[in-house]
Every structure is written in C-alpha cells, then in structure tokens.
C-alpha cells in the first residue's frame, strides 16, 4: 500500500487582505476555528500566520500566535507549523519571535531571497476596507524578500539543532532545492526532508505541470530518496497542480493563504471547504490521507508535548 498523503492547510497567510474575501480569518479566534475545522476535515499539518485582530494586517506578535496555538491544541492533535516567513515587510527577528517562544514541532523555512510581487492584485479591487491594504501590496514592487544563506543557517541552528524543530522547506524555484541539498551535505539539514514546491508567486517559478516535473527531477537528482515533497500552487492552479503532485507520489497544501476560491468564480467559505475538496481527490485516486501521528512518525517530529503553547 502506498504511503498516506499529507494534507497541509495554510489558514490565513500574509498575501491576501480582508477586502479580498470576507471569509479570510483575521482574529486569533477565527484563525483557530478555521484551523480546527480544517484539521477535522483531514489536514494533518496546519501552517499558521497571525494578523492584527483590528485591521487584519499581518502580525508577528508572539502572543497572538500563543493564543492561536493554545486554542487549536484544545480541540485537535494536528501538527502545528509556525511560519518563519511572516511577511516580506518584517525583519528576521520579528519573523522568528513566535517560533523561538513557542517551540513548535514544525516551522516553514524559505530557501532563498527573492522578489515576491503582490502588487498586481491592486488592480482587481477599488473599495478597500483598510487604508493599509493597497500600500502593503504596492510596497512589494520594491522589496526583496530576504532569506540569505546566513538567515537560513541561523534558523537551522537555532530552531532546528537547538529546539528540535523540523521544517517545511519552501522552494520557490529549482535553485532553492540546490540550497537544500547544500545544507544537507553540510550536515546542517538532516532528513527526513520535507520540501514544499511553491508555484505561481510572481518572482518564483511559474505554475505549470512541466515545472513540477522539473522540480521533482531536480530533487530526485540532488536528494535521492531521502525526502518527501508537497505541492503548493497559487490561486486557480491550487487544485489541478496539487492533484498532479499527489499523482506523482507527493503531498499537497491548500488553504486561504494560497487561494481564496473553491471553484471558478466562487469564494471558499472556509479552509475546511478546500481540505474536503482535495481530500475527495486524494481518496478518488486510491489513497488515504495521513493522520497527524503518521506525519509525526514519517517526518520524525518531536511531538506535541514539546510545544510551549
């Protein structure tokens, strides 16, 4: 029997803004509720960002993350994954503050600096709920999302070696996979490795089936069989390319961070809606979805009891 498929759900992120969907969770209570419902629908890993509860702007406040994590843990055993990416407008210290405080089982780790363009979304909306939204998006025209070799090394040492955190290694292009292989060879990154192929962000690799194949063959060549991969495709590409990833033997990420829609022209009412949709695809393909404890075994996680929240 093939290994079970891991569904990751990225609940709110720092890309979309409140004007874009009334269903985007903003407050700690709403983010936690979306996460709990997604876990109950079949997501084994919950990828978490925080937002200011009044304005919805992405926030690095560790106390917001503490509230979110503590609420989720009361109702589900899902693996909780704190973003170290935060937002391209945050400093590295801000991005890492919650992870240092709460010591989660997993964190995301972006594997290279890049242009990360959100500014094209400005043209889709006219009546903004908050003044910060168009300014936030426009700022990405002139900001480099910094993830230097030094940044990556400090995260691998401080969170990985010292706190036992495992990583969702976010690869926005094939060069990022080469960086993973470099740190694996150096011994700073140890298996089992969990790659997240990220397609469709302006500044990264484009969302095409050929690019998934390119990323997978690159990972096969550089990492052999000592890795697992998942596919994250932005916007309308989420379900088609996520399905392709499963067919190729990988895993899949969904959630309102990456895509606000459930189908063409229709907003998703919740993260759980997207999880249920991709779960049906996974099961129709003859697979079953992984449980949180299976993920802990597969990725050799330290266990929920080690989380400080």
Question: How would the blueprint of this fold be written?
Answer:
Elements (H helix, E strand, L loop, with lengths): L6 E4 L17 H14 L3 E4 L1 E2 L6 E2 L2 H12 L5 E4 L9 H11 L3 E5 L3 E2 L16 H8 L4 E2 L3 H15 L2 E6 L2 H13 L6 E7 L9 H15 L3 E7 L4 H10 L3 E4 L6 E3 L2 E2 L3 H14 L7 H7 L11
Parallel strand pairs: 1-2, 1-12, 2-5, 5-6, 6-9, 9-10, 10-11, 11-12
Antiparallel strand pairs: 3-4, 7-8, 13-14
Helix pairs in contact: 1-2, 1-9, 2-3, 3-5, 6-7
Structural notes for this entry:
The chain has 309 residues and is α/β, with parallel strands linked by helices. The protein has an eight-stranded parallel beta barrel, surrounded by seven helices. The protein has a two-stranded antiparallel ribbon with strand order 3-4. The longest helix has 15 residues, at 149-163. The chain has helices at residues 28-41, 62-73, 92-102, 132-139, 149-163, 174-186, 209-223, 238-247, 271-284, 292-298, and strands spanning 7-10, 45-48, 50-51, 58-59, 79-82, 106-110, 114-115, 144-145, 166-171, 193-199, 227-233, 251-254, 261-263, 266-267. Helix content is 39%, strand content 17%. The chain contains ten helices and 14 strands. It has a single domain, classed as TIM Barrel.
